[in-house]
Amino acid sequence: MGGLALLEAGIGVNTKAGWNGWGDAGGWGRFGLAAVWGEGGGWRGRQEDDDMSGSRLERSWSRREVLVRTGLGLGVLGVGLEAVGGPVLGDGLVELVEDPGFRRGFRVCRPAPGRHDRYGVLKGIDAGEPGWDLVQWSSREALPTVPEVDEARTRVWRNACKTVGLRWGGEAGAGVELTLGVDGWEEYGERARRDGEPWVHLLVEQPFVNGPALSEVGSARFRVAVRLLRSRLRRTEDYSPGRHAAQFQVFLTVQNRNPESEGHGRYLWFGIPLYDDRHRIPPAHKTRDTAGSGMFIFTPGGGTYSGVSAHDGGWVRVDCEIRPLLVEALEAAWGQGYLVESRRLEDYRLTGMNLGWEVPGILDVSMVVKDLSLRVGRGKGGG
Question: pTM value?
Answer without folding.
Answer: 0.78
